[in-house]
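Worked Example 4.2. Read the sequence first, then its structure tokens.
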Amino acid sequence: MSAGAVLILGARSDIARACARRFARAGHPVMLAARGGADTLQADADDLTARHGVKASCHDYDTLEINGIDSFLDSLDELPAVALCAVGAMGDQAESQRDPQAAALVIRANMEGPALTLGALAERFAARGSGTLIGISSVGGERGRASNYVYGAAKAGFTAWLSGLRNRLNGTGVRVITVLPGFVATRMTEGMDLSPRLTAQPEEVAEAIHRALQRGRDVVWVRPIWRLIMAVIRALPEPLFKRTRL
């Protein structure tokens, strides 16, 4: 794989930072995109350049501003070889149940914005005849659960979007990779009581993504145990499942 530029959307997250370091270590120029642009990302860009000798640029990107997607993409110096979407917001289930605006924000941040941005990139990649789109979704989207069904529903939609893109773009030279990390030790999960066996580190997610590019994987379960866990949860009959509290 040639070291083409990698665009990272949501570049301030712990997973995104780990991915940026992994791609930079492999020699890829990195384009960091998040709200605030250089004001919030310049230190990371400077560090990537100093450590790995690659070009690292900063870009202002707000996943909620869907009317600005095309202008954002037009502002990039080049169309990247790889686009990785690490945008996401856990939200609070209880708040989302009380407040439709809070629920809408979770849905837009996890599904609408990421899906439409990767959809716009898909059109440009397909016109060029090459490129890889990577979306970080969640095992939470495998089945709606009482503890996080607003977040889970949004991620389920994002997973379905990525699957549809992959199906539509087959044969065009454009790859679509879905990443399902399971629990990850990040600021978003800080304070949660997580099993070490089920919890990956951001660097582990980054390595799994980089490896998937090399091996041609379509769907990446960062820790394979999650594939089994979610298969069991999906298989539970609805009369039984609705009595669980997962």
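Now turn to a second chain, presented in exactly the same format:
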Amino acid sequence: MNTIKINREINPGTYRIEDIFDGLRKVEILLQIFGSSNELDDVFSKTKVVVDTSSTYMHVKNEDATIVIGLDHLKNSDKIILYLDIVHELVHVKQQRQGLDLYDKSYSYVDRPTEIEAYVVAVKEAKRLGMEHNEIMNYLEVEWITQDEHKRLATHVGLKP
């Protein structure tokens, strides 16, 4: 994690992943996600990152796997949160490349298989980094879910609420 440098001096626009997250390509968890160096190289060469002022956090566009990052999130959020978010979103990039619907409306957010998979990876990485249980629980607590949904998400990813 210390080998990753986050460029917070970015203006709204379109970038490569490593323009913002320098050193991310070398993170072991990404090789586990994508399965091979060739696939990971392909993802890093083809995935666009859009920084904009209208997004709040990060998300992946279902149609082309572009990662969108809110400018305020990039400039002000804690480094570890940004790191876990980009790992989470790269799981969604993999899923989109596999043809999965990232926003399948037949599931609630916390029950959606694509979200659960992405959060499982982020939680695994959070534990590897030494984050405490309560810190990981705070990471999972996003404002668009209820307390009951938060508990359900925690359970889905193997944490005790």
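Notes for the reader: DSSP finds eight helices and six strands in the chain. The CA atoms of residues 33 and 91 lie 7 Å apart.
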